[in-house]
């Protein structure tokens, strides 16, 4: 009887695994299709330009990228670099959802695995598997991602919260709702600029951190990875391009450690801290900087 139960359980497990893989393949194809559609829209954007559509794209871009992705998904949720009141944390995470880079739990899980396995075979998106793999191809290979990293068991802090579970289940509806709202409000110009142009710029800006910033740039800090500071990506991605800074001090809410390193999310965090809304804001100490400084270590040698 026990043997029979074991066989039935094994078959059930295999069936669930098969269905899970089919579901992942389906969503990979959906993502591929949406990115292709996004870039087709980008080609038509000049023919549908209006100033109102431009300002809609710019406003949504600011809300979803430096605030939604960099400040919320990256520094607040992934690294807990500072604390926010729950209402504000949830609002900023909702902005991040509309950057169309995945729901908060997915994004945070992938990023935490990136730091855990950085530039090894288990890194979700390292250029050691090729530049274009790290830039964009990894997005469509989630079965491969599962095989390398396993399931998202590194985000229990988010899984415990009903809000993030809700966003995971319904994120596609929110994106479709925004697209519909833009079309109703301003027709094709608002839809193309508010979705296609904004998302294409945002996607490649974020993807460049994974690819360019692990390939070209300067390394002021001795880290055990390929991370680099790239000033071009630093400006394009609102401060995320100071990537060697980030890998040296991943706990830090500030990525642009030099006065000239533009870091828009950090300025917003400082404002929130001044208003008493951001607390426990973490930055590296001078002792920590000295420990990782490549210049000091070269001098000591």
TrEMBL record:
Pathway: Lipid metabolism. InterPro entries: Acyl-CoA_DS, FA_desaturase_dom. GO terms for biological process: very long-chain fatty acid biosynthetic process. The keyword Phosphoprotein does not apply. GO terms for molecular function: oxidoreductase activity, acting on paired donors, with oxidation of a pair of donors resulting in the reduction of molecular oxygen to two molecules of water. The chain crosses the membrane at residues 55-73, 172-193. Its cofactor is Fe(2+). One of its GO terms (cellular component) is endoplasmic reticulum membrane. It is a multi-pass membrane protein. Its main location: membrane. CDD domains: Delta9-FADS-like. Keywords: Fatty acid biosynthesis, Fatty acid metabolism, Iron, Lipid biosynthesis, Lipid metabolism, Membrane, Oxidoreductase, Transmembrane, Transmembrane helix. It is found in: Membrane. Residues 50-263 form the Fatty acid desaturase domain. Belongs to the fatty acid desaturase type 1 family. The histidine box domains are involved in binding the catalytic metal ions. PANTHER family: ACYL-COA DESATURASE, DESATURASE 1, ISOFORM A-RELATED. This is Fatty acid desaturase domain-containing protein. It comes from Papaver nudicaule (Iceland poppy).
